[in-house]
Amino acid sequence: MNAPEEIKQALLPDVQAQKDTRSLAIQKAGVRGIKYPIFIETGNKSYPSVGLFDMTVGLDASTKGTHMSRFIEVLEDNCSEISYEKVLYLSDAMLARLEAETGYIKVTFPFFMEKLAPVSKVRGVMDYEVTYEVVCEKNSQSIVYLEVVVPVTSLCPCSKNISDYGAHNQRSHITVRASLKSSALKVENIIKIAETSASCELWSILKRPDEKFVTERAFNNPKFVEDLVRDVSIKLQELVTKNLISGFSVESENFESIHNHSAFARIDHNT
After folding, report:
1. For residue 227, which phi and psi values (nearest 5 degrees)?
2. What single-letter DSSP state applies at residue 16?
3. Is residue 3 part of a domain?
4. CA quadruple 95, 100, 104, 110: dihedral positive or negative?
5. Alpha-carbon distance 107 to 55, whole Å?
6. What is the span of the domain harbouring residue 127?
7. How many separate domains does the chain show?
8. For labelling, which of 11, 20, 152, 159 has a CA lying 20 to 30 Å from the CA of 140?
9. How far apart are CA 171 and CA 186, in angstroms?
């Protein structure tokens, strides 16, 4: 008669738990690129999305390997909604399940937000790339990073100044990475800071009156790539003062419409 399944498993060797004799600790061992269904809260709404997860733990020099299946079990048991509080809870659950002292979680997902066109008020949905990262250590304060990639419009001040009419403009990506100190700072807050610092923001649906508005707004509000990161940084420094974040970095990449390269600038502030 066959033994119960749990007895069979108990008799199988646990190779990962064996000792390693090479005297080399591993800072990150785990799984990468896990796609898992999640829910995102924005305003009074919650909507489904897909998170792309990296999950790792540290191994001391004597431990041969980690238990890869346990990372998936942690997701199955603890992951539904994604927020500041939820990723902290997930990291604690991971350390406990993997019996680890240190760990790291990264989850990237599309964040959707409804926006009204500036003149016609037509409703459309914009998407933004959002990432939470958690660096955790047993019995210590975890560090949570929030990164948001915001597409905007930039218009070249030099082009406007030297041209008899018109100026070259292009789509740009402003990437904000902030070290969070509380759950009070929302993804929408970061998006607003980036969009209001650009020559003009983007909308998914524009009618002719809206196109006129965004064209003229960008023309009247030219920004170099350096202007973008400085203007965003000034607003983020206010969040540091309010104790919402402890530090940040800001990048801007302008996908130049008249060059075969991008323009780029970055500011780091106590990160």
Report:
1. -65, -40
2. G
3. no
4. negative
5. 9
6. 19-141
7. 2
8. 20
9. 24
- Give dist(CA 140, CA 271) in Å, integer: 18
CA angle in degrees (0–180, nearest 5) for 63-30-178: 120
* Secondary structure tally for the chain: helices H, strands E: 7, 10
* pLDDT tens digits for range 86-96: 999 999 999 99
In this structure, the answer to whether residues 83 and 154 fall within a common structural domain is no
> Within 111-263, where are the H helices?
157-162, 187-197, 208-219, 225-241
CATH number at residue 181: 3.10.270.10
CA 165 to mean position of chain CA atoms: 39
Characterize the bridge pairing of strands 143-155 and 123-137.
Answer: antiparallel
- The string over 211-226, giving b where at least 16 C-beta atoms fall within 10 Å of a residue's C-beta and e elsewhere, is eebbeebbeebbbbbe
Q: Can you read off the two tokens belonging to residue 144?
A: 């949570």
- Residue 59's CB is within 10 A of a number of other CB atoms, namely 23
Give 1's pLDDT tier (boundaries 50, 70, 90): very low
Question: 171, 216 in Cβ contact below 8 A?
Answer: no
Reported as a pLDDT band with limits 50, 70 and 90, residue 175 is very high
**What's the distance, CA 107 to chain centroid?**
7
Contact in structure between 56 and 30 (CB atoms under 8 Å) = yes
In single-letter form, the type of residue at position 58 comes to G
